[in-house]
């Protein structure tokens, strides 16, 4: 019997580079993880593709899925909904594959309540002035959105204590390597493999 796949949650403050690190991880040829594509009500940015970057939906469509209990988690972030569709996560884990979420901190805390055995990784900035310039230089948002993102980022950093691991994003390739090592060792946790060994013992 194969174990259930891990649920890996990468989170961290706004502007820390979660998306960049996640993309670099998934660009690797030996990548073994399944990315859970999020749903959002925000507008598509230039170059983004529905069903690849996000499932872009209306508020009505999103709220219907919430009512039907079909979101693992969702959060309202800077005026839009973002969330993780439940079915894909369950099906993928049940098939023995690891599912990878890249989400903001409110959503990550909701996942932790529902799936306490998930692997919660907090991506941290090497220093705060860099975080500020990343938020400003993103260039896709107006000043009020930038200010709101900064306020949110400060509160978000406080959330680190609730995570299992903190990974510094000083260099994208280093952050990716650190995350891969964490996940590799999570596979050796007794909690993760105990069912298989118990089955073997029964058969002995
Ligand atoms: P952006 O609008 O820049 O693509 O994303 C804004 C924030 O939403 C990022 O911090 C990103 O990690 C987060 N996010 C993306 N997908 C989800 C999701 O499914 N759930 C939650 N809670 N946050 C998400």
Can you give a write-up of this model?
This protein is α/β, with parallel strands linked by helices. It has a domain of 137 residues: Rossmann fold (3-Layer(aba) Sandwich), CATH 3.40.50. 45% of the residues lie in helices and 19% in strands. The protein has eight helices and nine strands. The strands form two sheets. It has a five-stranded parallel sheet with strand order 2-7-1-8-9, with helices on both faces. The protein has a four-stranded mixed sheet with strand order 4-3-6-5. The longest helix is centred in the last third of the chain and has 15 residues. The radius of gyration is 18 Å and the shape is globular. The site of guanosine-5'-monophosphate has 14 residues, from strand 5 and strand 6.
Which characteristics define this entry?
single chain, Rossmann fold, four-stranded mixed beta sheet, alpha/beta, 204 residues, binds guanosine-5'-monophosphate, globular
What is the correct CATH architecture of the domain at 7-36 and 97-203?
Answer: 3-Layer(aba) Sandwich
Main sheet properties: 5 strands, parallel
What is the residue-averaged pLDDT? 93
CATH homologous superfamily designation of the domain at 7-36 and 97-203 = P-loop containing nucleotide triphosphate hydrolases
Overall shape: it is globular
Helix content: 40-55%
| Main sheet strand line-up | 2-7-1-8-9
Q: Which CATH class of the domain at 7-36 and 97-203 is shown?
A: Alpha Beta
| Gyration radius, in Å | 18 Å
